[in-house]
Amino acid sequence: MPEENIKIYTLKEIAEHSNSDSAWVLINEGVYDVTKFLDEHPGGPETLLDWAGKEATEAFEDVGHSIDARTLMEDYKIGELSEEDQKEKPKTNGNSSNCCWSPYFLLPLGVALTGVVLYKLYSHIYK
User: Fold this and answer.
1) What angle do CA 91, 98, 28 make, to 5 degrees?
2) Which of 26, 51, 106, 107 is most buried (CB neighbours < 10 A)?
3) What is the value of pTM for the model shown?
4) DSSP string, 26-47
5) What are the TM regions of this chain, as residue ranges (predicted)?
């Protein structure tokens, strides 16, 4: 639940801020105005501009930002995504089809673990 003094924005409003004059990103339902941070961003302004006006949670998380970066981003937070748009927004993270524990991942993992167990067993027997 957003705090009282936090402004609520829609996806449409966020999308209007997609250039170097006004660059907003949406990360974990928070809205961040990164316009003044463009030139300071370690990955360069292009990285942020690629996601300006868009949902950037997956891209942000994939990079593996540090705790310091996560703390710094709070200085740029200007609001939250509206509850209505939170329900409408397609989920890109946590989706079972994107999850690392899909059957396509489990089969090679099972084969690898079986190989390790067999190797340990045979190396112990034939010492």
Assistant:
1) 35
2) 26
3) 0.66
4) EETTEEEE-GGGGGG-TT-HHH
5) 101-122
Provide the token pair at 102: 């899909």
CB 57 within 8 A of CB 28: yes
CB 44 within 8 A of CB 99: no
Q: Work out whether strand 18-19 and strand 22-27 pair parallel, antiparallel, or are unpaired.
A: antiparallel
- Whether the pLDDT of residue 42 is over 60: the answer is yes
| pLDDT interval class at 9 (50, 70, 90) | very high
Say which amino acid occupies 78: I
| 120, 122, 126, 127 alpha-carbon torsion, rounded to 10° | 0
Query: In sequence order, what are the beta bridge partners of 19?
Result: 22
| Residue 1 to residue 63: CA distance in whole angstroms | 27
- Please say whether the beta carbons of 52 and 25 come within 8 A: yes
